[in-house]
Design a protein that fits this description.
Layout (H helix, E strand, L loop, with lengths): L15 H36 L1 H8 L4 H26 L3 H31 L16 H37 L9 H30 L1
Helix pairs in contact: 1-2, 1-5, 1-6, 2-5, 2-6, 3-4, 3-6, 4-5, 5-6
């Protein structure tokens, strides 16, 4: 097949459709490994909370609910915007896709800034689990330290994935501006969209564990 017919086709694929299906399947396989990774973390979180419920709940009540909720709303909005961009490129409107990518990337950056602000508040409140003057004392201290250990690990891992997502969306924006995508070829847009949606889903799972469960007990 000539370059004029399929300029994005790599030599190892039989057709452009084969290449697109392989790329999407590869991302799904990667996300499956990520589900196992975060699933193990959530399972450990739930197991430890079962044995240290009072401490976990005491720790959860100290989280900054307002920032966590705003970040949840931001990520849900970003998924809607990016999905709209995918629809726009399917309609051969790359300019609209570029706008959606820029908006999505900005929302991702706002999420990260708010998360850093939240971490600073947590540390200033003496909630970092390694601190000698940890805020929560008494019988609930051990469980609360464990909660905050899980909290910082889980949110840091999510922030790393979010950073990768912002970079990926930025790359899509650059490629869109260069005229690389059209209704006939936009597989990278779809692949990055799957990753971005996964990062959002992880936060949807973490949000009640971090901010709601302790307050509801």
């Amino acid at each position: 097949m000539s370059e004029e017919i399929a300029p994005h086709l790599h030599f190892q694929y039989a057709s452009q459709e084969h290449q697109a299906e392989t790329a999407v399947a590869g991302m799904w396989l990667f996300l499956a490994t990520e589900v196992l990774f975060f699933g193990g973390l959530v399972l450990a979180w739930m197991f430890c909370r079962h044995w240290q419920q009072a401490g976990f709940d005491a720790g959860g009540r100290e989280t900054v609910l307002a920032i966590g909720t705003v970040n949840l709303a931001l990520l849900l909005t970003s998924s809607f915007i990016y999905s709209s961009g995918l629809i726009f490129i399917e309609l051969d409107q790359p300019r609209r896709l570029l706008q959606c990518c820029l908006a999505t990337g900005c929302i991702g950056l706002i999420f990260l800034v708010l998360k850093i602000v939240e971490w600073e508040i947590d540390i200033s409140e003496h909630l970092f689990p390694a601190m000698a003057d940890f805020k929560i004392t008494g019988a609930e201290e051990g469980g609360a330290r464990l909660f905050w250990s899980f909290y910082f690990v889980a949110t840091a891992l999510h922030a790393l994935h979010m950073t990768a997502g912002v970079i990926a969306v930025g790359w899509i924006a650059v490629q869109t501006r260069a005229g690389r995508f059209s209704s006939g070829w936009h597989t990278p847009v779809e692949v990055v969209g799957l990753y971005w949606s996964f990062v959002d889903i992880v936060w949807i799972v973490l949000y009640p564990l971090i901010y709601l469960v302790g307050r509801g007990s």
